[in-house]
Amino acid sequence: MFELMFCSLLTILPDYLYRRYAQGKRFGKEITFFSIWYELRWGITGCLMLTVSLITMIFYFHPSTTSAAMYFRTVPILPEGSGRVAEVKVSYSQSVKKGDVLFTLDNSKQKASLETATRKIAEVDAAMTSAESDVVKAEAQIQEAKASLQQAKDELDVKTELQRRNPGIVPQRDIEKLQVVVNQRQAGVDAATASKTSATLRLSALLPAEKASAQAALAEAQVDLDKTFVRAGVDGRVEQFLVRSGDLVAQIMRPAGVLIPADAGRGRLQAGFGQIEAGVIKAGMVAEATCISKPWVIIPLIVTDVQDYIAAGQVQAGQELIELQNARKPGSILAFLEPLYKGGLEGVTPGSSCIVNAYTSNHEEISAKETSTARAIGLHVMDGVGLVHAMLLRIQALLLPIKTLVLSGH
C-alpha cells in the first residue's frame, strides 16, 4: 500500500494535474467514476507498473523473511550403557554445572567387580610377600646344600689322599660311595639354586605382571562403576527430566531427558531467505530483526555467514531413483546473523520466531572514482528504497503483539 501511494504521486497525480489544468477537465464534470479509468489511464497504468517494479526491487535487493529463529542445540541425557535408575539427583527442570551427577544406575554388579579386583590385588601382594620368604628360604637351602657338598668333598679328598699314599688302606668301595654322595649333594645344590631362581623370577616378573593385570581389572571395574553415575557434560539446564527410580534407560530409544547448554542459542540468529535472493545475501550485510519474545524492539544485526548449500537438495542412498516431480518445496538460503552491538539479543528467548530484513549497501562502489554517474544514481536509488522496507519492519514490530494476542484468535 505504501509503495502504491508513493508511486501514485509520481504517475496518477501528474496525469490528473495535466487533465485538470491543461485540458480543463474537472471531477464530477468531464472526469466521473465511469470515465476516470479512461481519462487517467496513462497515470494508472504507469502507477501499476512502477509499483510492481518498486516492490520487486525492494524485496530483491533488501530481502525479508519470517522464517527466522534462534536455534539451539540440545544434549540428550543418556548413560554409556543401560540399566535401571537407582537414584535421581535433579528435578524436572533445574540448572546444573558440568560434572554434576544427574542420576545413578543400579551398580551392585559393578561394586562386586570392584571388590573382586581389590581383593585380587591384596591376594597378589600377599603372594609377593610369600615369594620373598621363598627366596630367603631358597638361599638358606643353597647354603645348607653347599655346606653338605663341601663336607662330602672334604671327606672324599681325605680318603682319596690316603688311598694314594697307602694303597689298600681305604677300600675302593668307600671311595665310590663318597663320590656318589658328592654327586648327590651337588645335585642338591643345583636343585636349591633352581628353586631360588624360580622364586626370584616369580617375585620379579610373574607376580608384578599379575598385580598389573589386577590393577587394570580394578581400573576397568572403577570405570564401569563410574559409568553408573550419569553426569552433566556441560553447564546448562535440565528440562523434561521425567526419569524416576526403577525406570529403564538405554542409549537406544530410552533417553532420560534433555540438557540444554547454558550458551545455546544466545548469540546467533538463523534466517532462511528465498532462493531467488542467493545472489544478494552476502556476509557483511546489515540487517534488522524483531522477535515475538521481545516485542516493539528493532535489533540491529549483521550477516556473518551464508550456508552454501540448500537443504532441499540433499539426497541419501536408497533403493529408488530420485523423481524430481516428487521433490519437496524449494528450500531456502540459510544465513547466520549476529547482533551488531554487544548484548543486542539479550532478552530474546532461544527458539523465538523473528522477522528479519537484510539491506544491500553499495556505498563503496558509489564512492569509487571509476563508478559512472548514471550507475551511482541507480545504486543510490537501490539503497534508498531500503528505507521503505525498514519502515515496513517497524510497522510489523508495532502490530506484531496486536496480531498475536488479538487477531490470531487464541
Report on the structure:
This protein has 410 residues and is of the alpha+beta class. The chain has 4 domains: 1-57, no CATH class; 62-72 and 265-314 and 321-407, Elongation Factor Tu (Ef-tu), domain 3 (Beta Barrel), CATH 2.40.30; 75-106 and 229-261, OB fold (Dihydrolipoamide Acetyltransferase, E2P); 108-226, Helix Hairpins, CATH 1.10.287. It has helices spanning 2-10, 12-22, 36-39, 41-61, 108-165, 172-227, 363-367, 373-384, 386-407; strands at 64-69, 75-77, 83-88, 94-96, 101-105, 229-231, 236-239, 248-249, 257-261, 269-273, 286-291, 294-306, 333-339, 353-359. Strands 1-10-13-12-11-14 form a 6-stranded antiparallel β-barrel. A 4-stranded antiparallel sheet has the order 2-9-7-4, with no helix packed on it. It has a 4-stranded antiparallel sheet with strand order 6-5-3-8. A hairpin with a 2-residue loop joins strand 11 and strand 12. It is rod-shaped. The protein starts with a helix and ends with a helix. The model has no long low-confidence stretch (mean pLDDT 82).
DSSP strand content: 15-25%
Q: Into how many domains do the coordinates divide?
A: 4
Number of helices, counting only DSSP H or I runs of 4 residues or more: 9
| Strands side by side in the biggest sheet | 1-10-13-12-11-14
CATH class of the largest domain: Mainly Beta
- Find the structural class using helix and strand composition: alpha+beta
Give the C-alpha Rg.
47 Å
Average pLDDT across residues?
82
| Oligomeric grouping of the chains | single chain
The helicity comes to 40-55%
